Amino acid sequence: MKYIYLSLIAFLFTSCQEAQSDQTNQDEAPVEVLTYYGQEINQEGISNYDEIKSATMETGLSKTKLEGTIVQTCPKKGCWMSLATATDTLFVRFRDYGFFVPTDSVSGKVAVIEGDLFLDTITVEMRKHYAEDAGKSEEEIAAITEPEYDINFIADGVIIKD
Amino acid sequence: MRFPQLLIFIFLIAGCNSGNEAEKKVIIDPNPTSEMAQLMRDMTDELASIREKLINEEELDQNLLDFALIHEQEVTDPSFNKPHVKPMSEAYAYAVDAFNENPTKSNYSAIINNCLSCHQLSCPGPVVRINKLKIK
Fold it and tell me: Does the CB of B14 have a partner CB in chain A at under 8 Å?
């Protein structure tokens, strides 16, 4: 009986070493580092942007998950970002001003966002404020005189990939 | 299986699994927090708690709120130092004093309206969050 226990322990110990060795080998390979902001989301079920955009133009709002490349984040607070999809650059805000992304060093990185894609009117005041945040000149800000009706995004969670 | 052997078995299984679990860290704000931002967060938490009590018709003590003066805080970005901030901060402090003296729904709403007025002029991003502090 004693030998059976000893064999079982030896087997488990060996299996464990192999599993950790595999993990070490994986760690040595270049790995994608994911940083999560806001609610924890995953990368499963990312929508095709053009398809979900068409649906949103019909319904006004779609709950969805998208992937794109970060063009810019709010350099003052990190309270918005612009994200280039295959066809459009989306203006992304964060639900209820409840979380933020880095103010710098993430432009050009790939991000996954989950939340609401919707048709939205951004008032002249808000457009001027976002332009000021983005470091636009006084002339550029003064030139904003019309509200913007466009497709925008409110995210519940963001993953930024390194 | 006897008890000591069972313990060894559980220990080995647990030890083996622990190396494989990746911890996910979820970040709310990766950026440095200024005095102003911290004060805004503290005030939001405090006012949300007061709001709940007012909605539940709880009796409130006087002098519940003790906030630092907004215009004396170090700001996140110099562009937030706009000319209207000081007078509006003083108006806000006045509204807080009125609530401390007489903690009613009406005086609470006056505080929230002050928050909204100032943010609409200086930093409209948090307006969506301030709206959730209203008592409807």
Answer: no
